[in-house]
Amino acid sequence: MLPQEIVRKKRDRQPLAPDEIAAFVAGLTDGSFSEGQVAALGMAIFLNGMERDEAVALTLAMRDSGTVLDWSDMPGPVTDKHSTGGVGDNVSLMLAPIVATCGAYVPMISGRGLGHTGGTLDKMDAIPGYASQPDKALFRKVVREVGCAVIGQTADLAPADKRFYAIRDVTGTVESIPLITASILSKKLAAGLQSLVLDVKAGNGAFMATKKSASGLAQSLVAVANGAGLPTTALMTDMNQPLASAAGNAVEVANAVDFLTGRARDRRLEEVTLALAAEMLLAAGIASTHRQAESLAGNALSSGRAADVFGRMVSALGGPADFVEKYQTYLPQAPVIRPVKSGKSGFVTAIASRDIGIAVVALGGGRTKPEDVIDHAVGITALAPVGTDIAKGDALAIVHARNEADADQAEAAVHAAYTLGEGRPRMPRPVIRRIALSS
Ligand code: URA
Prior knowledge:
- The protein has helices at 3-11, 18-30, 35-48, 52-63, 91-101, 120-124, 136-146, 159-169, 177-190, 211-227, 250-261, 267-283, 290-302, 305-316, 323-330, 353-365, 404-417; strands at 79-83, 106-110, 148-152, 195-202, 232-238, 247-248, 336-341, 346-351, 379-381, 389-390, 395-401, 418-421, 431-435.
- The radius of gyration is 21 Å and the shape is globular.
- The chain has 3 domains: 3-63, Transferase, Pyrimidine Nucleoside Phosphorylase, Chain C (Transferase, Pyrimidine Nucleoside Phosphorylase, Chain A, domain 3); 79-158 and 167-326, Pyrimidine Nucleoside Phosphorylase, Chain A, domain 2 (3-Layer(aba) Sandwich), CATH 3.40.1030; 333-421, Aldehyde Oxidoreductase, domain 3.
- It has 17 helices and 13 strands.
- InterPro entries: Glycosyl_Trfase_fam3, Glycosyl_Trfase_fam3_N_dom, Glycosyl_Trfase_fam3_N_dom_sf, Nuc_phospho_transferase, PYNP-like_C_sf, PYNP_C, Pyrmidine_PPas_bac/euk, Pyrmidine_PPase_CS.
């Protein structure tokens, strides 16, 4: 099947047949379709869309481009969560141990930061000694013995997505619902899960800025995942302000440990984390009602058992055995720590979250090129949430920078990202709505 014929068909708005999609994914994986042909088809899909059946076929073909894991030997349900990406979104670090504490198995294969959003893998890499790319035997052992393992994507998992994503990234075709759907779900299906919960972010710090576009993505993800045989629900959550009060890598790990141990817990982060945990417990069949699921998740957290599971996971993957107790001595610290003081008083009415994410990237906490080495120590903490009553001279946030010049830049970015007003703003709910197959 000639690549150009497949491109012509989609260019002319005709649906692709499963064998044409399979030929495209084979050519994408073995390199026999040139970068130009892949980019042209990506753009044709971006412009003309895909029918549901086409998106399912693309997702399945991309799943089958590499290894598909099998967890059928685990003694309990195997489940995971995937977020479409945000700022200060360290939910996975708490969620995996909470859900594992309740009896599920969570093999969480996570990605690096993308654009202005942070990546779970980069955060875990801030922990000294932690093997975020273990071999399969160790990965399985930790999932079985501890209940969860948060690791990085391996090269043999959905390799078609790896090449397609890199080409989409530089050809303006990332923000396409069928392409995002196939990209995310091919990896999750290859991970061999038995159920999945999606956290679809909507707002100025998400890839989908409006509720309408986030809803379209959520519907597509839920329909295609279920169509591909993976029971999946989604929560749409607010990303019009950073979710945690920290954005960066080591600083988000510290925030997560404080959350787990109860030393400090950001309110919106807690609401989203417990809502996702309840959703996962329902999907995994561990709870039969929402109330029961919430209570199980809440107990896992308040009893300290989830913090214990997190500590055991870190240690089983090579990190310090006393990480939860002494994380401050292990996590890298930035040399310059500077509060960003407000020049005026007022209520925080809006935060340009994407700009906070970009400020973290500019500090060195994210990448501008795939080969960049990130600085795990830098970031922004104590981000005042929307609704905070700020007096002149109060800190809007604290910048953690490698040097004074970087701190100057980040300080200016924080000032620019915050809007202060006179009236107390309406407080948006962090969980916007649930999307299931029939909704
Ligand atoms: N995350 C992915 O894994 N793929 C996309 O296309 C977008 C976000």
